[in-house]
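Ticket opened by: R.M.
Priority: normal
Category: complex prediction / small molecule

The reporter submitted a protein together with zinc ion and asked that the result be attached to this ticket for the collaborator who will pick it up next week. Submitted input follows.
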Amino acid sequence: MRVATLIAPWNIAIEERPTPTPRDTEVLIKLEACGICTLEQRLYSGRMRLSLPLVPGHEAAGSIASIGQRVVEELIPGQRVALDLVERCGECYYCRIGKSNLCLNRYKDATKMLGGFAEYIAVRPNQVFPLPDTVSFEEASFAEPIACCIHSLKRLKVAMTEDLLIVGGGTMGLLHLLVAHAMGLRVTVSEPNPPRREMAQRLGADFVVDPTATNLVDFGKEITDGIGFSSCVVTSPSPSALEPAIRAMAKAARINIYTAYEDVMQIPLDLNTIHRNELLITGTEGRVQEDFFQAVRLLSFGKINVKPLISARVPFSRLDEGFRLAISGVAYRVLLMHGMDDEGKQS
Ligand SMILES: [Zn+2]
Ligand SMILES: [Zn+2]
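Result attached by the on-call engineer:
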């Protein structure tokens, strides 16, 4: 089978490797689509370091090729599935208290990690989430980032009809928008980049603002009868994006720092504001199994449409190009299509 191996930053090699033989308790998956997420982009550019070589890819979908003899769940060969490819040990403190997204052992074994940029992968049955035929492999590859948005919004304890402010209209900001709408929220997207604002509009944002031209505090008050936003997800790592967002919050508001920052960032806020206004400031990282399950259901029920966020599809031979496009910042999701030939035809 073909495998894309990250050998060193900026160096991906397409290799031939034997197709994995699944254990009795595993399922073999033929992969069909896998997104180039921020994690892969950081590994590729060397901004995040894990032991190399490794096969990246964790936003993947495909179909069941074979099923181990001792798999208890009833699975059918050929069944289309979304895959949870971030390994959790199930044994550490965080796994045991239901926070497997914070698993202490998830990046320890490079051979067991990620692996979506290969034609086949052997996984445990609990990593496999069946899909109906109405969801394409491309759409299913969004199950993982959608699950992260679900986790993020649950952490904010959002309630129906509240006003959510999303800071940043990149892929994750816009996926938050789609999930927030499915949860019955009214959503304002704050984004300085015009094409991204247009996309937020196209995806149905209730309000879209340019924070360089609009005062967020005033705007938030204007649409909420003077109250301010009930909650906020920060998906932009721009340091200047945070402070106006926090100041635009209502009392008792919740703020989730979803983005990672490259440098050390302090909260640009006087602690008395947190005290007097009962603000809750939190962060989220990844997702747990229930979030993934719900993400697959959202896609299966046709509750959200992620298709506009697919910017490009590349075959193995143009994966480097795909990475560069994803990193450029002008694209939303770029997908590796495992069955696509060099001319771009899908088999
Ligand atoms: Zn991801
Ligand atoms: Zn663990």
